[in-house]
Specification:
The termini are far apart. The protein is of the alpha+beta class. It has one domain. 36% of the residues lie in helices and 22% in strands.
């Protein structure tokens, strides 16, 4: 059973505040760079490792992205990039280590093609 523990540090746009005058293109580029850094860490994980793993869940017209921050207890942080999609709490609670290892392995397989 996993828990959610906040937001990954990054240059994310805070849509709960006024966005007037924000440099959206610049912030999105910075967010893309931060997301690529997180994905590089995930891609370099050895078999059986979960901490640092990036998990993408298809939602709406995009993805909800999370990063594993602790193995015991299993803990994730949300990556509020782009449209800032999230999955329901019960999806996070239902995750097991085996699920996360499978998701990471699946993403790594795509990189090898």
């Amino acid at each position: 059973m996993a828990t959610l523990d906040g937001i990954v540090d990054g240059p994310w746009i805070d849509y709960t505040k006024s966005t007037s005058g924000l440099d959206f293109d610049g912030l999105m580029t910075q967010g893309d760079t931060r997301l690529a850094e997180l994905q590089d860490i995930s891609d370099a994980l050895s078999k059986g490792e979960t901490v640092g793993g990036v998990l993408n869940f298809p939602v709406g017209d995009g993805m909800a992205t999370y990063v594993v921050t602790k193995a015991h207890p299993l803990t994730l942080k949300w990556v509020p990039h782009g449209d800032q999609w999230q999955v329901p709490d019960y999806t996070i609670r239902g995750l097991r280590k085996a699920d996360i290892l499978g998701m990471i392995a699946f993403e790594q397989c795509w990189k090898e093609l």
